[in-house]
Amino acid sequence: MKISIIGTGYVGLTTGACFAHIGHTVICQDIDSSKIQKLSNGENIIYEPGLNELIREGLENKNLAFTNDFVKAIRDSDFIFICVNTPPRQDGHADLKYVEKVARDIAKNLNSYKIIVDKSTVPIRTAEKVKETIRKYCSKFVEFDVVSNPEFLREGRAVHDILHPDRIVIGVESERAKKMMLEIYEPFTKEKSIPIKITSVKSAELIKHGANTFLAAKISFANLIAEVCENAGANGYEVLEAIGLDERIGKNFLHPGIGFGGSCFPKDIKAFKKTLEVLGIDPLFIQSLEKINDWACERFIKKIEKELWVLDGKFIAVLGLAFKPNTDDIRNAPSLKIIGHLKNEGAKIRAHDPKANNKMRVIFPDIEYFQDPYECIAGSDACVLCTEWDEYKNLDYSVIKNAMATPIIFDGRNVFDKKEAEKCGLTYIGIGQ
Ligand code: UGA
């Protein structure tokens, strides 16, 4: 199958590399020429485990290419996957200007039957609009289909999630497009039985927003229970673990912390809230989960302030900057809010992240960055842990205790073992315990 991928961000690049890996011929297009140059040379542009190996493999096998040339990418392919970004607008709606532009450009270059696939996360009815736009701007009659095939990958596990998905959702209107889409995914499903849900286009669009909202709601529920536990003297770990053992609920995504971040949940639930408003449905549920997510971070900041009283002039070590482990992405990371607040109060920040130091340096150029967590902690008045990197799980509590000026740990992700940390003389403040 000949596939073109428009937009080589997280979704486009990993999808393209994985499609090439399973044997399709893929051309990835992006307007950013420096990105294309680097990718064509096999250089890394994002940190994503396993991705670089797949890119190099595709380049070597000559079934993965990168280009700025939109016309070439469109004309030579049977499938056009729209993977451009859909950032939030001021009012919360997803900004679809890049999707609309791609649809217009496709219309101008449509030379034979093609399947246009919405892969980016978009609100319900976007495919309908893409179809209308292509019809409007295409000067001759050429057949095409617009399909919704949402991506469920998680950053940091993107390659694994694409190659071993829980399910594949294909929202499609014509038999012809359905048959061709199933052919694309056949190599994924050959060895393992992966459920393929064929749905209407609108249902497929809603499945993505619905899934992300539900996951975000689970996290906010966990954060609410954690707060109740703290206030009432119960143990959040025990409570959430036991709740999650009910098969109807499940234990995943019930870990309390300092709130969800990243580029997806905050943006998607805002867009879904707008969809509800447009449909005349009260967005109360979504407002609540957003509010609880904000509280999770604010409550953590309050704990730091309560314990340290005056922040001015204190050295605070921040461990973990990325919004979650195994990524260098800092978009909507709770660490941004926490560092911003501590800095405003006059604290001197020392930061460590295994992958995200460089990205954070762009936002906060005036704080100290370290390559080693122990060096970061040394001499500090408090340590604030924001991301649950594996590297932090094995830190030696006695070494930390002796290295810090005042051994206080604020553990925003419950990475440390409270009892063990206290045994070693650390003052430990976690979440929900
Ligand atoms: C999320 C979804 O999990 C993917 O299925 C979806 O495809 C993707 O959005 C998308 O829309 O493209 P992602 O944002 O990469 O993926 O990251 P997650 O692993 O879902 O984590 C999101 C946030 O929730 C992180 O800040 C994480 O720390 C937080 N989280 C997660 C918790 O606070 N508690 C948990 O129990 C789980």
List the helices and strands and how they pair.
Elements: E1 2-6, H1 10-21, E2 25-29, H2 33-40, H3 51-61, E3 64-67, H4 70-75, E4 79-82, H5 97-109, E5 114-118, H6 126-137, E6 144-148, H7 158-163, E7 168-171, H8 175-189, E8 196-199, H9 201-232, H10 236-244, H11 265-278, H12 284-308, E9 315-319, H13 334-344, E10 348-352, H14 357-363, E11 368-370, H15 373-377, E12 382-385, H16 390-393, H17 397-403, E13 408-411, H18 418-423, E14 427-429
Parallel strand pairs: 1-2, 1-4, 2-3, 4-5, 5-6, 7-8, 9-10, 9-12, 10-11, 12-13, 13-14
Helix pairs in contact: 1-3, 5-6, 9-10, 9-11, 9-12
This protein binds uridine-5'-diphosphate-glucuronic acid.
Uridine-5'-diphosphate-glucuronic acid binds at residues 121, 151-155, 212, 215, 219, 253-255, 257, 260-262, 264-265, 268, 323-324.
Walk me through the structure.
The protein is α/β, with parallel strands linked by helices and 433 residues long. It contains 18 helices and 14 strands. The strands form 3 sheets. The chain has a 6-stranded parallel beta sheet with strand order 3-2-1-4-5-6, sandwiched between helices. Strands 11-10-9-12-13-14 form a 6-stranded parallel beta sheet. A two-stranded parallel ribbon has the order 7-8. Helix 1 packs across helix 3 and helix 9 packs parallel to helix 12. The N and C termini lie far apart (53 Å). The structure holds uridine-5'-diphosphate-glucuronic acid. Uridine-5'-diphosphate-glucuronic acid binds next to helix 9 and helix 11. The site of uridine-5'-diphosphate-glucuronic acid (UGA) has 21 residues, from helix 9 and helix 11.
